[in-house]
Write a structure and sequence with these properties.
alpha+beta, CBS_dom, 50% helix, DUF294 nucleotidyltransferase-like domain-containing protein, single chain, 625 residues, CBS domain, DUF294_put_nucleoTrafse_sb-bd, Diverse_CBS-Domain
Amino acid sequence: MAAIDVSEVQKFILSTPPFSNLSTAQVTTLLTGISVSYVRQGQTLTLEGEVATLHLIRRGACEIRTPKGALVDQIADGECFGVSSVLAQNPDGLEIVAMEDSLVYRFDKASFLTVIAQSEAFALFFKHTRHHRSRKLLRTQSGDINTPALQLSTPIEQVMTRQLIQAIPEETVQVAAARMTEARVSSILIVEGKEEKQRLVGIVTDRDLRSRVLALGITADLSLAEVMTGEPATLLPDSLVMQAQTLMSEHNIHHLPVVSAEGLPVGMVTAADLLRHQELSPILLINQIHRQASVDSLARVCKQWPILIVNLILTDMKPADIGKVLAAVSDNLTRRLIELAIKALGEPPMAFQFLVFGSQARSDQSLGSDQDNGLMLSRTPTQTEEGYFAALASFVCEGLGECGIRLCPGNIMASNPDWRMTVAQWRQVFSNWVTSAAPSALLNASIFFDIRCVYGDDESVANLITEVQKDVAKNSLFLASLTRSALASKPPLGFFRHFLLESSGEHKHQLDLKHQGLALINDIARLYGLACRTYRVGTIERLEQAIREKLITPDTARNLIDAWDELNGLRLDAQRRHWQSSGKASAYLDPSVLSPLERKHLKATFATIKDAQEIVLQRFARGYA
């Protein structure tokens, strides 16, 4: 135990949430009996006896582990441990293991509990911290993370619908029924109060309309106040799926409003929502896709697409595996649309291949991915045959758009006649790109050189790739030009490794994880992929192949793979949060939402990319930027 400079401690905690919100008197109380200790790397603290109190990391990093060594959480500068010990006597027996030499402040238990009793906001912060780590512990203890137990422990806010239909008690049953029909919902929430503070007072469901109005032959001019269920059962957003199921069972209800602490409605959960949460899986979705006989029915089935992605993210599936799952769903959806097009248009007049490019080809799609595709024909079509393939391509591309895979803003789609070509024409186009150093050629190379066949015999595509690689091998100037183009963008790190954030606009003070991170690694991997003798289309697969062919050191490649995993995980989680709050996907991240340790990891990740870019520059462009 070391001597402590109380003024230094006070200065630090006044800049650290939630301590920074305490009054001067509360800070004085908290500092009573405080001590400081050094924890050596690898040292384990068992939170018992006098150690069973709150600790604040001044400098360093630690892991929270179970008695069996399973990782629960990682924390660093400005974060606390011992929360469960002081609030609940550490029922799970958690231990602290120092990841590096760390300087730690230890608060006196009695002083800490005094401040907890004085400040509700302070107490709530640590209650949420404990709840957050309890959820992580539950995931750690699950043998299979995609288990019913994990699904039951999901917060209800991850499942609920946020688009609410509301009415006031004085409105009539007829008006409410019309609004429910228009919105295609089975319930309407009854609220009272000012517009921004409308408190939930009741609910009317389809069953209420049947049993309380239609069955009794009552006029539809009746007010909602006379038929609603008043003061209905509700849950808070951080309640668990298990609690929702239990409450529905106890009250024999199928609709459960979700309200804020102030009683304001924020969401709705139905029995169908819970069933989808429990049963939705990629295999189920693919099976449903192949049973549909129209684009409209496919579009209805594919409304589950974002929910599936959110579920995959919440189960902590590896980002690379999520990409493969989504590519499998996209591939099957594309094939089904082609089958429906052929059924509508008749058998194709010649063999053809449906090509996909970009993220679908690499199998790293995410929420909000658009489509990039084209057609390869076995010979030059007649005017009539060209009309057939134009209709087929439009059917498929527009169908994908209706099913949630948005149209390409750059019009790189089979519906564009520029991207419907014969085998020979595709071969010539790729050859022209390799022999040209024009910016447009380099841009096309960054898109079209990620290519995969999802329908038809892929031998022609494999031959095309082989010929392209031969062209690249003969043309070092092309690879050098592509390298310089790829390295024009840099990771968002400034002096002293501070993040370079967006300076204006909708995403001010945020990081673009896609274009400032993942795309840079994809570009590096593509360069190595083109230099390899064996072609691979996925980013990780390209880096692994480059190791096998000794084009890259194992350490550099594995660091890039780890960086890709880290950024992809952050992007998916950011997209999940944006989608659940706004219905839109965004790959932008506000780094302030990350813990200090997560920010440290993210800076190291960007530094890894920067180092790899320097290596690529030397290898493929002879050091000339």
